UniProtKB/TrEMBL annotation:
One of its GO terms (biological process) is DNA integration. This is Tyrosine-type recombinase/integrase. The keyword DNA-binding applies. PANTHER family: PHAGE INTEGRASE-RELATED (PTHR30349), PROPHAGE INTEGRASE INTD-RELATED (PTHR30349:SF64). Residues 167-354 form the Tyr recombinase domain. Gene3D superfamilies: 1.10.150.130, Intergrase catalytic core (1.10.443.10). Belongs to the 'phage' integrase family. One of its GO terms (molecular function) is DNA binding. It comes from the Bacteria. It holds the Pfam family Phage_int_SAM_3.
Length: 372
């Protein structure tokens, strides 16, 4: 490890080759040391750091995004990029991984909780903080695997945020929904709202419907809608993607009156081709805003467009009492449906106990005893 004296300045400098994390040799020159020992110390420390985590945070991000491109949907990748650009890079850019210690992470967590704001200028919601913190932990777990980082600096620290609180569901009855629909005059908007309310589909699934998706079930001849795609927004452009989950790919029976409305509506569309979206001229944001404003004006519960799906589930549960059937219709698994909608049937537990009580009092003295 030689050091050299610059005859012009009288200062010492070092120059050496060192392999970076990719295995490539880098030529390093550092000047301006007063003593030879200082130059040698710099070389020793630099090589020691390079041997361990000579990777900058931006390099980690680049590799992480490359991997995630092949693992997640485009919409999910867009959300990951937003989190990285908004909450990670402004704080960690320019830092080598070796300098991102638990103490640095703790400082970042404090900043996120006390100073970081959302687009409206409000503090970040607990559920948002939890998601962001988990994403950072996942990022450093990735660093441990591919760069040999010895410690995940997020692991072992107290987390921030909390589990997502259940957002209040505002439910419309069929009577209220009828009043709401009557305030719309464009046939496309009226038919879209009816499709959402009477089939329980997601807004993206409804916007992706084509004429070919309005079918008569081959098994029983009943009208149904085929959901096998969804409209998503990626980089501010609309795109057609597969359904949200495998179970979302489904055929859902619909009332005959909705089937008739859809057929009547599509027959009026000018030069509609088989693969054309039947609601291609309806904006998700526009229809959502109108629904909120008009329910408020009507003195109803102010609803989001997704609340029409909740209204369908509420109606179906009250009619069938069968969570499995409802889950199949809306394209969710039973566990998700139970955890999301069980509270819509608050009296079912009491009713079940009452039925057991009736059975017990009426049968207990008449049942024969079986001796084994």
């Amino acid at each position: 490890m030689p050091a050299y004296k610059d005859e012009k300045t009288g200062k010492w400098y070092c120059q050496f080759y060192c392999k970076d994390w990719t295995g490539k040799n880098k030529h390093i020159v550092k000047r301006g040391f007063d003593k030879k020992k200082d130059a040698l110390d710099y070389e020793r420390k630099f090589k020691n750091a390079a041997k361990h985590q000579d990777v900058y945070f931006e390099e980690l991000i680049e590799e992480y995004i490359k991997k995630m491109q092949h693992k997640v949907r485009a919409t999910t990748l867009e959300r990951i990029n937003t989190v990285i650009n908004t909450h990670f890079l402004p704080f960690f850019a320019g830092l080598p991984l070796s300098q991102i210690t638990p103490a640095v992470i703790n400082k970042w967590q404090h900043f996120m909780q006390s100073e970081q704001k959302n687009k409206k200028g409000d503090p970040l919601a607990p559920s948002t903080l939890l998601i962001i913190n988990s994403r950072l932990g996942s990022l450093f777990t990735f660093a441990c695997r591919i760069y040999g980082l010895k410690q995940n600096p997020v692991k072992g620290l107290d987390g921030i945020g909390s589990l997502k609180a259940r957002r209040k569901m505002n439910i419309l009855t069929p009577e209220q929904f009828s009043l709401l629909v009557d305030t719309f005059h464009r046939e496309s908007e009226k038919t879209l709202l009816k499709t959402l309310f009477w089939s329980g589909c997601r807004i993206g699934e409804a916007l992706a419907l084509t004429q070919q998706d309005i079918i008569l079930d081959s098994n029983d001849g009943r009208p149904a809608l085929r959901f096998n795609k969804t409209v998503v927004t990626v980089n501010r452009k609309l795109a057609i993607h597969p359904p949200k989950t495998l179970i979302s790919n489904r055929v859902t029976p619909i009332p005959y009156f909705l089937y008739q409305d859809l057929i009547t509506y599509t027959n009026k569309l000018y030069r509609l081709k088989p693969g054309d979206r039947i609601f291609q001229y309806v904006s998700r944001n526009s229809i959502g805003g109108k629904v909120k404003r008009r329910t408020e004006k009507l003195g109803m519960p102010i609803i989001r467009i997704h609340d029409l799906r909740h209204s369908y589930v509420s109606l179906m549960l009250s009619l069938t009492k069968d969570v499995a059937v409802v889950a199949e219709c809306i394209g969710d698994n039973i566990d998700t449906t139970l955890s999301t909608y069980t509270h819509l049937l608050p009296n079912q537990k009491k009713n079940a106990v009452a039925m057991l009580e009736d059975l017990g009092t009426s049968k207990v003295h008449t049942v024969d005893t079986v001796v084994l």
